[in-house]
Input
Amino acid sequence: MRRRAGRSTNLALLAVLALALLTGFLAYAIGSAWGWWVVAAHGVVGLGLVLLAPWKSVIVRRGMARRRPGVAASIVLTALVVLVVLTGVLHATGLGVSLGPVTSLQLHVGAALASIPLALWHVVARPVRARATDLSRRNLLRAGTVLGGAALGYAAVEGLVRVASLPGADRRFTGSFEAGSLRTEALPVTQWLDDSVQEIDRKDWRLTVVTASGAQELSYEDVASFDDRVRAVLDCTGGWYSEQDWEGVRLDRLIPDPEEARSVLVRSVTGYSRRLPARDLPNLLLAVRLGGRPLPAGHGFPARLVAPGRRGFWWVKWVSRIEASAAPWWLQSPFPLT
Ligand SMILES: Nc1nc2c(c(=O)[nH]1)N[C@H]1C(S)=C(S)[C@@H](COP(=O)(O)O)O[C@H]1N2
Ligand SMILES: [Mo]
Output
């Protein structure tokens, strides 16, 4: 009987871990408002992990008594999962957004990624064989109870954050905190991974626009002569967002007739690039000004992409090339690799 219960706890934990990774991944990939439920689901699933912990601890105690190899790896995995949950709560409540040199969110994502290979090892080394009876009515009822409890817990935490006016109450639907909106000097300068701020001389810079009918080169003055404007929210996966006024040229002016093109590749002088769907062209802006002034180097001078409704990593800085292409937009890594 106890062994049966142990197996269903392990299976539930496995499902919860997989859902936590999936919703976390989606929360970073989705930047528009309809995706709010993904962030909520991520929180619910995270609390589900907490609810299952007491049951798991019984299994762990039993397992430790058997002195199998791999105990060290299991302890590291446990520590990582505890760190992921803790940093998730610290970020969500706003009680500890920054932990010295790193942010809670950076630790959250870093520990979660580090736990993946260990979790895979754990599943292989300590296999749980699923059985038909695992889907019994009783077990489904249990799963529903855990999920319901986690949802109640999530609602309680969110309610508490609001009643106590914790900083986490003001977060955007993505989970991000506001930073310096409409104050250009307060907009943080951020790079995805290893890019560095480029100091580019406007006289040396050219924008290459490639379409089916050939390549075209524009100077800084050419691009700066446009005055398309958009007020848009830059929402970095680092956990902050900022609303700013951007000005430059809409991409459907540079590529008025995409013809067979399904996507447009926007590339930085650093090699950093993102591929966007061609149907987005009218909503995309190649900005040369921020708050009415030329872009500071840190924000992408001479020109940077403004992609409203998309997370910050799509907003390519120091753009030097825009290329219409027949390749579908999703033919790329979901997140930049450099
Ligand atoms: N070339 C290049 N563009 C980039 C990045 C980068 O690393 N390299 N980082 C992206 C990320 S993750 C974000 S959040 C925004 C930040 O823009 P900002 O520094 O102007 O606030 O730029 C994006 N554009
Ligand atoms: Mo970002």
Remarks:
- The longest helix spans residues 36-65.
- Residues 20 and 314 are 24 Å apart (CA to CA).
- The chain has seven helices and 13 strands.
